[in-house]
Write a structure and sequence with these properties.
Bound molecules: adenosine-5'-triphosphate, magnesium ion
Mean pLDDT of chain A: 87
Number of helices of chain A: 17
CATH superfamily of the largest domain in chain A: MetI-like
Helix content of chain B: 25-40%
Largest sheet of chain A: 3 strands, antiparallel
Strand content of chain A: 5-15%
Strand order of the largest sheet of chain B: 1-11-10-4-9-8-7
Structural class of chain B: alpha/beta
Low-confidence stretches of chain A: none
Shape of chain B: globular
Number of domains of chain B: 1
Distance between the termini of chain A: 64 Å
CATH class of the largest domain in chain A: Mainly Alpha
Number of strands of chain B: 11
Mean pLDDT of chain B: 90
CATH architecture of chain B: 3-Layer(aba) Sandwich
CATH topology of the largest domain in chain A: MetI-like fold
Strand content of chain B: 25-35%
CATH architecture of the largest domain in chain A: Orthogonal Bundle
Strand order of the largest sheet of chain A: 2-1-3
CATH class of chain B: Alpha Beta
Number of domains of chain A: 3
Low-confidence stretches of chain B: none
Shape of chain A: extended
CATH superfamily of chain B: P-loop containing nucleotide triphosphate hydrolases
Largest sheet of chain B: 7 strands, mixed
Number of strands of chain A: 3
Order of helices and strands of chain B: EEEEHEEHEHHHHEHEHEEHH
Oligomer: heterodimer
CATH topology of chain B: Rossmann fold
Radius of gyration of chain A: 31 Å
């Protein structure tokens, strides 16, 4: 009797266990499905962004060009070769009458109405080509020169009605074409969509990021090391901790105001320079790095410290030989996040004057410059359609820059992790 | 309050006198006096929480790393008070090595694990000398034959027993005078344990060795002196054979016969 009862109980137990097992598997499957759905959502959002950006932006890497044959040998452009190497080579070429030579060549080939639609800045491109290769002055070449924005609009079928027949005619003759524009990546800002470039903004971003990294990373990591390894735990360190957490949450435009008051106030002649921009962004990035570095340093197991201390490593050796290498992947993750945010930041840079129109790439850290996100902001304000495309193209470049930066950081982080 | 068995007088490498340790308000060690010599291995035994690790850590001042720990009394190494304010702990820890309960090799290569100590203490003037130190230490730790072809592999990729021997090699690479081992075999299987006990036998005489252990058999096998601790006090100290065959205190007898909880 008792035996019978116990087998019954055993069977009931088995039943219950089977049901519990089934419920557990079901829960597991549900959770996996939810996770997959979450991933699918984020991938879809990313794809949508990329597809629309690339769809709109690829045409921004093209421009409307006029093909103009020019015989420099006969044009009689006289510039001393020595001056071509000098800083003022551009004005020298202008003085020598480069624009006029181009205008005459264009009139001869395209007719006077066509010549009038040459981009007024076209001579600059030619001048740079001549500076790069003075031999050009002895040759006959077909130049691809930017068309005016109006002609470009007419070729697209909008803009001024009166230019459309001209556009059709020149296009039929093969003199007006839409072509890939590698120069977009090497020129700087301009007032005409056909002759703009982003090298100015790209170089500005590179320099600004370099300054930000050079300041925020060491200062942030050292602050974190001090707080974690050396500082006594008391009210003051608590206060500092709270302040740093708050700093990380302060809106970026406030940092812009701070940069304006502090850095631009101290160095007024460096207004709109990458140095000031980088310093301002470093203020903003540092708290993020401090917080992540502290977390990473705190997560280093005590056994690693003890092992080093016990064979007679000094405190600084423990930090630099053992704690920091172990914490580096975590520190890098925080740095990536901080730097990515800094790269995309517009507001604080507007405050310190990096919105100025800068037609030449910055020569150095203290030269006026623009950065990619500000360039996007400025161009998106323009009415001309050409600028809309250029804006999208710039966004693609910014995203690629971001990807490259993150890729590099992740590569470095993996190298660190592998070494462990 | 401590029962000392009669012993031949020996020269003490480490002499602890009336050492008390407090963690905050809580007293973990109560006036312990003991001499550690070079000619024999000393075992610390006693129930969990009785203060064995705490006493061990007073010998190389690892208690300094615990924020609220406070040490009273006197610990002398070769007659010099190691708690003197002008004493350099880095130097001290180079002379008093430590092996931890859980193997904790650096997450670096096997070579680097052993070479690190000699390098920071400037014990080798060039690579050849460093190589020689690494090989000698690994040989003494009985690990050389197993790792000589993979010195650049990570130390953490070794088995638990190999890791512990690597930690011992790391400790002896800086040529210490004392080696403190805090339950070095508690994470190891019997074969690895036997290997390390053998190693302790080989190291005996060259270094003053203190080993904390929960295994009575291990204490009986490797040590010549045994100290029994209970509730922060050293209850009984003497030759290992005396302690195990002829304990004078009731608590010691209970503990070594396993009647103790
Ligand atoms: N870092 C610490 N902070 C506060 N109290 C501690 C600390 N380390 C140890 N103690 C306390 O000191 C007492 C002795 O600890 P200790 O680690 O020396 O014991 P033990 O004999 O080594 O024990 P076990 O055999 O379990 O390792 C215990 O009561 C413990 O709770
Ligand atoms: Mg212990």
């Amino acid at each position: 009797m008792t035996e019978r009862a116990s087998t019954d109980a055993g069977a009931a137990d088995g039943d219950r266990a089977a049901r519990r097992l089934k419920a557990r598997y079901a829960a597991e499957r549900r959770f996996r499905a939810l996770g997959l759905a979450a991933i699918a959502c984020s991938v879809a959002a990313l794809l949508f962004l990329l597809v629309t950006m690339i769809g709109n932006g690829m045409s921004g890497f093209r421009r409307t060009e006029l093909r103009v044959p020019v015989d420099f040998a006969r044009a009689g452009l006289r510039v001393e070769p020595a001056r071509l190497g000098a800083i003022d080579a551009l004005p020298a070429l202008r003085q020598a009458g480069l624009s006029q030579v181009l205008g005459q060549a264009a009139a001869a080939s395209l007719g006077p109405d066509g010549a009038a639609e040459l981009d007024p800045d076209a001579w600059r491109e030619v001048a740079r080509a001549i500076i790069a290769d003075p031999g050009l002055l002895q040759r006959r070449v077909v130049l691809s020169l930017p068309a005016s924005d109006n002609l470009a609009a007419a070729q697209r079928g909008d803009g001024q009605r009166r230019l459309r027949p001209l556009a059709t005619r020149l296009a039929a003759q093969g003199k007006l074409v839409r072509a890939w524009d590698p120069g977009f990546l090497t020129r700087a800002d301009s007032t005409h969509a056909q002759s703009v470039g982003i090298w100015g903004a790209l170089k500005g971003s590179l320099l600004t990021m370099a300054v930000t990294m050079a300041l925020a990373f060491p200062i942030g990591v050292l602050a974190a090391v001090y707080l974690e390894e050396y500082a006594p735990r008391n009210r003051w360190t608590d206060l500092i901790e709270v302040s740093i957490s708050n700093l990380a949450a302060v809106p970026s435009i406030i940092f812009g105001l701070l940069g304006l008051a502090l850095f631009v106030g101290l160095f007024p002649s460096w207004r709109s320079a990458p140095l000031i921009g980088g310093m301002t962004l470093a203020l903003m990035t540092m708290p993020v790095i401090v917080i992540s570095a502290r977390a990473a340093i705190g997560a280093v197991p005590p056994s690693a410290r003890d092992a080093a201390l016990a064979i007679g490593a000094s405190r600084i050796q423990v930090v630099f030989h053992h704690v920091l290498p172990l914490a580096m992947p975590g520190i890098m993750t925080g740095t990536i996040i901080g730097m990515a945010r800094a790269l995309g930041e517009t507001a604080p840079l507007l405050m310190i004057g990096m919105r100025a129109f800068v037609a030449t790439p910055p020569a150095g850290l203290t030269a006026p410059a623009s950065v990619l996100p500000v360039q996007i902001f400025l161009w998106s304000d323009e009415i001309d359609r050409g600028f809309v495309e250029r804006t999208s193209a710039t966004i693609i470049v910014l995203l690629l820059f971001l990807l490259a930066m993150n890729g590099l950081a992740i590569h470095l982080r993996n190298r660190f992790e592998k070494r462990l | 309050m401590t029962t000392y068995h009669e012993l031949d007088p020996v020269e003490a490498k480490i002499a602890a006198r009336d050492v008390s340790v407090f963690y905050g308000d809580q007293q973990a060690l109560d006036r312990v006096s003991i001499d550690i010599g070079t000619e024999y291995v000393t075992a610390f035994i006693g129930p969990s929480g009785c203060g064995k690790s705490t006493l061990l850590r007073t010998f190389n001042r690892m208690n300094d790393t615990i924020a609220n720990a406070r040490v009273e009394g006197e610990v002398r190494l070769d007659g010099v008070d190691i708690y003197r304010s002008d004493l350099d702990v880095v130097q001290l820890r180079a002379r008093v090595g430590m092996v931890f309960q859980k193997p904790n090799p650096f997450p670096k290569s096997i070579y680097e694990n052993v070479a690190y100590g000699p390098r920071i203490h400037g014990l080798a003037v060039n690579r050849t000398e460093l190589d020689a130190i690494v090989e000698r230490s690994l040989r003494r730790a009985g690990l050389w034959d197993e790792v000589k072809d993979r010195l650049s592999d990570s130390g953490t990729a070794l088995s638990g027993g190999q890791q512990q021997r690597l930690c011992i090699a790391r400790a002896i690479a800086v040529d210490p005078e004392v080696i403190l081992m805090d339950e070095p075999c508690s994470a190891l299987d019997p074969i690895a344990t036997a290997r390390i006990e053998e190693l302790i036998g080989e190291l005996k005489g060259r270094y003053a060795i203190v080993i904390v252990t929960h295994s009575m058999q291990q204490a009986a096998r490797v040590s010549q002196r045994t100290a029994f601790f209970h509730l922060g006090r050293m209850v009984e100290y003497g030759k290992t054979s005396d302690i195990f065959t002829n304990p004078r205190e009731e608590r010691t007898k209970d503990y070594i016969t396993g009647r103790y909880g």
